[in-house]
Structure formats: C-alpha cells, structure tokens
Amino acid sequence: MVEVKSIIFTRNNKSFIIDIKEKPILNYNGLIISINEKQIIKYLNSLYRIINSWEHEYINNNKVDADIWTLLITYRDDSIDEYKGRNSYPYNFESLEELNYNLVDEVLNV
Q1: What is the number of other CB atoms lying within 10 angstroms of the CB of residue 87?
Q2: Which region, left, alpha or beta, applies to residue 70 given φ > 0 means left and ψ of -120 to 50 means alpha?
Q3: Which of 64, 74, 84, 96 could lock 70 by a disulfide, CB 3.0 to 4.6 Å apart?
Q4: What angle, rounded to 10 degrees, do the helices at 37-51 and 93-108 form?
C-alpha cells in the first residue's frame, strides 16, 4: 500500500484521523468508518497537492481567542511531518477541510 501510517487533523478539539493498518479506518469525531485503498490513494494524492507549499507553522498571537489546528502525517518508518497553526493558516487551508469532508461524505454514502 502507501508508506503513510496515519494522518491526524485536529482543529479546536475536533478530529479527523485516518489510520492505515491491515483494515484502514477513518475516525471522524468518534465515528469509525472503514475505507479502502483506492480512497486512501485518492485522498493522499490530493492532500500532498494541498500541503506541497505549506510552512510547518502558522502562528498569530494577536488574537485573544485561539483557533488551533494541527496536521500530523506519520510514516511507516515513524517519521512525522507536522503542520500547525494558531489563528493563522496557509492560503489553501480550506481545501484541506473540504478534502476531509468530501472523504467522510464519500465513505458514508457508499
């Protein structure tokens, strides 16, 4: 399959987790759904296009209320790519959220 072991996206205590094991699963805020290899490959291809130019940290301390987000990609060799932010986002951040929602919608409507 792919070299990614897991993807964890959190934003303000809400989570989107893809755990790629023998039977890959998507955990969306506690709702656990099986996903297939085709869905994972499609998701990863889109994900890497979205984050291709991202910095690893987006921090804006000028706001009192914090909108905190993290994206962790763990690989089979246990290396990790981490992207995070506080009140600041890459220019195409909404594309990541849309990608996540589209995968949830796809697996729920199969």
Answers
A1: 16
A2: beta
A3: 84
A4: 170
Q: Which residues make beta-bridge pairs with 71? A: 9, 83
Number of domains in the chain: 1
Q: Are 26 and 35 in contact (CB under 8 A)?
A: yes
Distance (Å) of CA 46 to CA 32, 36, 42, 65: 22, 16, 6, 31
Cα 19 to Cα 102: distance, rounded to the nearest angstrom: 17
> For 76-89, how does the pLDDT look when each residue is reduced to its tens digit (9 = 90+)?
999 999 999 999 99
pLDDT tens readout for residues 17-38: 999 977 899 999 899 999 999 9
Please report, for residues 17, 57, 58, 89, the alpha-carbon distance to residue 71 in angstroms, rounded to integers and kept in the order given: 10, 10, 12, 12
Q: How far apart are CA 92 and CA 3, in angstroms?
A: 25
- Gap between the Cα atoms of 102 and 110, Å rounded: 12
For residue 31, what are the domain limits? Answer: 4-108
